[in-house]
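Quiz preparation item.
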């Protein structure tokens, strides 16, 4: 009888960084202690301090990404790195590396494609009340537009399967990347999970890279673009209803006057109302056509996702080995 060969899933820890010299060494060290078998990658996004040097000294594999923006870094990481399990966090120390085994075990035991570590103390981050208010608004908007799969779409602490990473298009260039990840999972109806984790504060001297208004506007624009791409009937239908309402508002007095007098004295208003009516019809037809195109694209994305190899984790499960990850002390963390 051939001897059974068992192999652990390969884990890649991904840390996109920009000017995090105060915290990156400690973050890398804690991840190495928590996940001793994992490869730790730090992608330096044009830092002007000693982020890359301190990450390399702490034992991480350091790569430079010249295109500025977290989305550009994530796209590069997902393209470059091959692993069975991908764990993404920030290099600022706000996410606890000690929570990583819990996230990975949830990914394995619940057979999810993405697990999100939702942030319990996000409203205390650096005292930025604008960020907290924006989080609530955008999370509520997400639920109305894309579904109730997520309660914290901006969390940067996530674990993915290889299937998710290699099927994710990663179009965004900045902090909108987490929103795009969430929409990708919601559109393809991928199995996802959430775990509530503590969210730490930045150390003194470290500042957030988020801009409340600039990044908020980018995220709002990304919402609009994602609705257009994934729900074109809803997107163009809204324009159709708007143009139709404006057309009827302008057309009604002219029609009433025509019925009463047989004259159309306000010809420019009538021409404008008819033009708006035509625009309404055009938007409705565009939405119907693009809705069929969007459904076809979603089916193709789903087929491509299913064509990706399932990975060694599932082969290990079929061989009879339980899907759990042990900490360095040999204990499996309890789920929250």
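Solution:
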């Amino acid at each position: 009888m051939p001897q059974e060969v068992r192999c652990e899933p390969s884990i890649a820890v991904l840390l996109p960084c920009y000017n995090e010299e105060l915290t990156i060494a400690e973050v890398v060290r804690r991840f190495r202690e928590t996940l001793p078998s994992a490869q730790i990658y730090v992608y330096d996004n044009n830092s002007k301090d000693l982020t890359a040097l301190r990450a390399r000294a702490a034992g991480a594999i350091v790569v430079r990404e010249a295109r500025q923006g977290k989305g550009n870094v994530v796209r590069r990481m997902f393209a470059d790195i091959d692993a069975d399990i991908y764990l993404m966090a920030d290099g600022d120390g706000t996410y606890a590396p000690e929570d990583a085994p819990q996230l990975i075990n949830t990914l394995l035991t619940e057979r999810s494609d993405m697990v999100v570590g939702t942030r319990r103390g996000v409203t205390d981050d650096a005292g930025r009340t604008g960020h907290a208010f924006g989080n609530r608004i955008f999370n509520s908007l997400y639920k109305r537009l894309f579904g109730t799969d997520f309660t914290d779409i901006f969390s940067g602490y996530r674990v993915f399967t290889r299937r998710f990473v290699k099927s994710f298009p990663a179009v965004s260039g900045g902090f909108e990347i987490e929103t795009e990840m969430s929409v990708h999972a919601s559109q393809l109806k991928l199995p996802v999970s959430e775990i509530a984790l503590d969210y730490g504060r930045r150390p003194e001297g470290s500042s957030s890279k988020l801009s409340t208004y600039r990044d908020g506007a980018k995220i709002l624009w990304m919402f609009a673009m994602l609705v257009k791409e994934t729900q074109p009937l809803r997107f163009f239908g809204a324009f159709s209803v708007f143009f139709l309402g404006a057309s009827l508002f302008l057309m009604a007095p002219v029609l009433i006057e025509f019925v009463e007098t047989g004259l159309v004295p306000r010809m420019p208003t009538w021409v404008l109302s008819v033009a708006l009516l035509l625009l309404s019809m055009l938007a409705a037809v565009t939405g119907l056509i693009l809705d069929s195109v969007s459904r076809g694209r979603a089916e193709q994305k789903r087929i491509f996702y299913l064509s990706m190899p399932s990975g060694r984790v599932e082969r290990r499960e079929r061989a009879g080995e339980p899907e759990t990850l042990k900490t360095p002390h040999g204990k499996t963390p309890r789920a929250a």
